[in-house]
User: Fold these one by one.
Assistant:
Number 1:
Amino acid sequence: MTSKAARSRSIKSYSATAVALAATTALLAGCGSSKGDNSSNPLDGGKSDGNTVVVGSNNFAESILIADIYGEALKAKGVKVTYKPNIGSRETTYGLLKNGSITVLPEYNGALLAYLDPKAAPKTVEATTAAIEAKLDSKLTLLDPAAAQDKDSVTVNKATADKYKLTSASSIADLKDIAKDLTIGASPEFQTRQQGLVGLKSVYGLEFKGFKALDAGGPLTQAALKKNTVQAADLFTTDATITKEKHVVLQDPKNLFGFENVQPLVYKSGLSSAGVAALNAVSAKLDTKSLLDLDSQVTLENKDPLDVAKAWLKSAGLG
């Protein structure tokens, strides 16, 4: 796994979900998980009383939404839960987990591994989990990964998908004969990275007509893809503009962009076996399509993330 995963996740935290998500993030600390539960300072360092699971989240909207899903799933099994939403970056939340100030945190396996071991390059989800476990603080553990991934992708706009008959079942490899007619947009670094044009050529045999330097899946890239300034772009797989603009995310069967599965990171002694089972049940149900839909409800429809979380859990038979 390259350090791209860590940088991508950090960039996404602050800018890659565009203006609507940035505005939503600013509001979420005061709604969603904090509603009727806990409004204390997330950095106060106060530990659980031993009978309460503290569910934390990083400072971007999707993390807060997933934390709400985790917390409400635990509540449905009779676990007492409080929330510490919108805490900050991984550097902060990892420390709070280690000292027991928070019990559960939504993580992304590839980005977490890049944080713990930037040189690691696992080839499977299972190997990613094993590599993380080898580097984790002894007081922490990972639960089961979800199928849901929020990672870099090659995404084409609707006009391009219609023209070349590309669907959500199509793969990056399906661009091999048409890439010469397409311009792709992404961050400037994408042009020289293995998880970028270099890998697209060496792994999938793609040579694009042109490259346009934009931003890391943010508003510049979103706008260029919408306006057809670029026909393909590096977007995150749960970016709500995919739903809004009817873009098509191409499958990555050779895992060029690594793994970014949603996975609970847990303070071992703070979670019961019933709690473990509840979170593993969430992971068994949550896939990328579902997470994209949930993100879209929050960012495009301005729904309260707690309400979105509860509705999804009920529909999945977990609420």
Number 2:
Amino acid sequence: MFQAPRGTTDLLPEEQKYWRYIESKAVALAGRYGFGRIDTPVFEDSDLFVRSVGQGTDIVEKEMYTFEDRGGDSVTLRPEGTAPVCRAYLEHGMHNLPQPVRMYYFCPVFRYERPQAGRFREHHQFGLEVLGDADPSVDAEVIELAWRLMLSLGLKALNLFINSIGDSECRPAYIDELRSYYSAHQARLCAECQTRLERNPLRLLDCKVETCRALGDAAPRSVDHLCQPCEEHWASLRRYLDTMDIPYQIDHRLVRGLDYYTRSVFEIQPVDGGAQSTILGGGRYDGLIQELGGRPTPGVGFATGMERLALNLKRDGVDVPDELAPTYLVANVGEAARTPAVELAAKLRQAGIGAILSSGSRSLRGQMRQANALGIPYTVILGDDEIQRGEVVIRDMAASTQETKLLQGFLDEVATQGD
């Protein structure tokens, strides 16, 4: 028997309500903040991610689904959402639009990693990007949107962590000091961090191995090595967040896992979950557009995983509305009533009322059991006598009561209830 590939999952009908709930809240908030939707291809030129995400990152070295297509081109299934949006910004000349350009997206992303709760090899993200404005108030606005989204979903007991990792002016000196610090403790590093020490020292702070995390606690702090413009940006960001009444904590180990980040980085985590259960993450990436061949263009954004959000909604016991279900099940008594039942079900749907046709081969009792099993509140019953008199019987399944109505009167009544 075939099964879904390892690290993927089927989103079954009973799970859909969580996703629709998240989508509705996210779209409403994004619209309130002036964002428009963008959808980019599932796969891109592999170099897009190598140049943007970074050659020395885990994503590029270990996790990307890269293959050669029939034309001999190297393409990669999208491992993250920011780089494709930046590519679209350049390709479609969005720098000519009023700046900044605000875009949000829902998309599947693909990373070959060890599957775990809330993390799959194919997972789905809601993300947004603001391109064309370097002011720290934009960072604060994006973080505010992220925090308000969590609150609007009903999630509880969350921490917002922020940090500044500087830019191309001040970060090189900080990385040299970081490398010097970790070199003195090299024997205590895990095997992966031994490699990171030379290739990407900043990523040492993000290691989840306990001995490496302990070293990270005492490591040099990026905020102590900021140049004056980065320091001013950092101070302004904190002042704006305080003004917005957004609760945050400074995490000096927070660097994020992508090379394109500059200055502000942030994450939202459950209080009892830790860094491995991060719900949302993002930051500023002022050099990314230039790295992709455009002129210097600031950017900031975030992404959050739909699967992990749904997991946390269940964990917190959030009351998520059920998906819309049919109001009526149309049942027929006898084969002669089947065609009128088909016609009635169609008329109900045309009037904007949810209705399904029962399984006609069942007895009336069986058809009503079907209504109960599907959670349909009313059964409309048509038999020979009802058809002859131009009537229908409406049964309230919860109250186990029923009444007879004229068919046309019933249709006129439900027409006022439709969409």
